Amino acid sequence: MGVPLDLDEESLKAVRERFERLHIAWTENNRVQALFPRGASILPNPRGTARGFAIERDGHVLYCLPGVPSEMEPMFRDSVAPDVRRRFPLAGAIRMRSLHVVGMVESKVDEIVRDLMDPARNPTMAITVSGGVVTLHLLARTARADGGDRLLDEMERDARARLGDRVYGRDGETLQAAVVRLLRESKQTLATAESCTGGLLAAAVTDVPGSSDVFLEGAVTYSNDAKARTLGVPVDLIRAHGAVSREVAAAMAEGAARRAGASIGVGITGVAGPGGGTAEKPVGLVFVALHAAGRTDVSELRLGGERERIRERATRIALDRVRCHVERSR
């Protein structure tokens, strides 16, 4: 920038205090975190020691932030984005919305909504996929913000009409958050019994704040003895059909619901690999059972991929089974 670096005493004090609070020994080379180009505006960093800065030169503005995402992202949101909007106001308004789709591959979603992705349209639509969830990104450009919302509402109604209950949520809502919300709205409760997923389903649900309103209990019954002792799965049933079977998954779901007094019980058993598979029961074979209102439904899954991917996909499918059941029973 062609300017010297100046020491900012306030930043230096903040760095020292953070080191003391975290019981980290101070070394003089950390003073560099308080040096900024002369004339720069300092940007606060509530999650770390290294502050950012903005500096203007020849009609351009340069923003410098630490690269750690957990620090950079909130700094961009709270300091950089508002400053950019102030300096460079847009003509008109841009409104964005996202819809999340589960249980349908990206190519199928693309086929169903392809005409909505015409770049000449307003709003426009784009598709991304991550972790088995397909996301539709809607963007409207209008002279007024309320006009953008109206356009997005129209496109969302169209997309939902085409995709049906495959759309589970909007914007930042996760699949597990949608499940918790639906359970709470319908005044239903959930209990889980897991084998091959090792508690991933219970962990996903309890990641949601307030899930204690609807999630009663989760059991990881990895061994046959645990299935019998904890869930009441008959030993003869396990001997006759094996731990990885439609019958045992159903008994696990029923045992979980009965044990916790829950409206809904879910049982998961399978072969996650890499070993343990046979010709009759290969790696990737997973049974997901859902018990509710005196009825038990079991899904047989044939999942590909490594152990972690099989476990994650089984968990996501189980969550979606609960979501669909609650949606349809309301």
Structure characterization notes:
The protein contains 10 helices and 14 strands. The protein is an alpha+beta fold. It folds into 3 domains: 5-87, Molybdenum Cofactor Biosythetic Enzyme, Chain A (3-Layer(aba) Sandwich), CATH 3.40.980.10; 93-170, Alpha-Beta Plaits (2-Layer Sandwich), CATH 3.30.70; 175-329, Maf protein (Alpha-Beta Complex). The longest helix has 23 residues, at 307-329. It is globular, with a radius of gyration of 26 Å. The model has no long low-confidence stretch (mean pLDDT 95).
User: Any idea what the radius of gyration is?
Assistant: 26 Å
Question: What structural category characterises the helix and strand content?
Answer: alpha+beta
CATH topology of the largest domain: Maf protein
Number of helices: 10
